[in-house]
Specification:
Layout lengths: L1 H11 L8 E3 L3 H9 L3 E3 L2 H15 L5 E3 L6 H7 L10 E4 L6 H8 L4 E6 L9 E6 L6 H12 L2 E5 L5 H9 L1 H18 L4 H21 L4 H8 L5 H11 L2 H20 L2
Parallel strand pairs: 1-2, 3-4, 4-5, 6-7
Antiparallel strand pairs: 5-6
Helix pairs in contact: 7-12, 8-9
């Protein structure tokens, strides 16, 4: 996810390679990041040292993007005392399930914290991102975050109380589509197609349907109705799905994902 954000930021000009420092302990990932031109460091402490040099050279204050797993952040802070010594800073967290208050407590009370939740398609410029900003952030900081994540798709501003719900819909949402693709592929094989042909048919069908959704503001139910003739093949399929309670199952799935996100944020 971090690499996708960096790549989009560089491509759009929101980030400059020589002023973007990435702390990455994995040597192979560091080499890949160096190949796209950014400055790399083996740990957060040395990354902050590089950031300090950039700030002196540019006479500006940089933001810190936290793109680690939530359970790793306390150890990163413990191993990097300099983080707590950085007063009045902007931190952008993409960590699922970790509230802004929790991040601020770990980093120190003077940090301004934005919580941002992008989803996987940000890597191909089709992402959906939710932003919850800190009330003390400057308009220019909010605009910078919008541009950074806008380089990978679209974004919405939400209150933090809705972030778990957003994760259930958009964060996990790509997996639901992949689940559907998997089910269609299995079904196609079951009615006689070989695996490779089934995969090609399913992928292109879903890509085409997604393009129709993206084209305008048409309601999904209207698009479905346009494909569904009374008494026809699509109607037979949708009637079977309705009788199996698929719509209700999706509603339950979203609630389960939202509630699990809330549980994780309390751990």
């Amino acid at each position: 996810m971090a690499t996708a954000i960096i790549t989009g930021g560089l491509r759009s000009g929101v980030l400059a390679s020589h002023t973007t420092i990435v702390a990455e302990p994995d040597e192979s990932k560091r080499k890949a990041l160096s190949a796209i031109g950014v400055v790399t460091a083996p740990d957060a402490a040395r990354g902050l040292e590089s950031l300090a040099l950039v700030e002196v050279a540019t006479r500006s204050t940089g933001a810190v993007v936290l793109a680690v797993k939530p359970q790793v952040l306390p150890r990163v802070v413990e191993d990097t005392p300099a983080l707590k010594g950085m007063a009045d800073r902007l931190a952008v967290s993409i960590m699922a399930g970790m509230t802004r208050d929790r991040v601020r407590t770990l980093l120190g009370g003077t940090w301004r914290v934005a919580r941002v939740m992008p989803n996987l398609p940000i890597g191909v410029g089709k992402g959906m991102t939710a932003i919850t900003e800190d009330g003390s952030m400057a308009p220019a900081e909010v605009a910078w975050i919008e541009r950074l994540f806008g380089a990978g798709g679209k974004s919405v501003h939400l209150p933090e109380a809705m972030m778990d719900a957003f994760t259930a819909v958009a964060g996990s949402g790509p997996a639901y589509l992949f689940y559907l693709a998997e089910a269609l592929e299995r079904g196609a094989i079951g009615i006689g197609f070989d695996r490779e042909v089934a995969r090609e048919i399913v992928r292109q069908t879903l890509v085409g349907a997604a393009a129709l959704l993206e084209r305008g503001g048409e309601d999904p139910s209207a698009l479905r109705a346009a494909v569904t003739s009374k008494g026809g093949t699509t109607n037979a399929a949708c009637t079977t799905l309705d009788s199996a309670g698929v719509m209700e199952a999706f509603a339950r799935a979203l609630r389960a994902a939202r509630d699990r996100g809330a549980e994780l944020s309390k751990m």
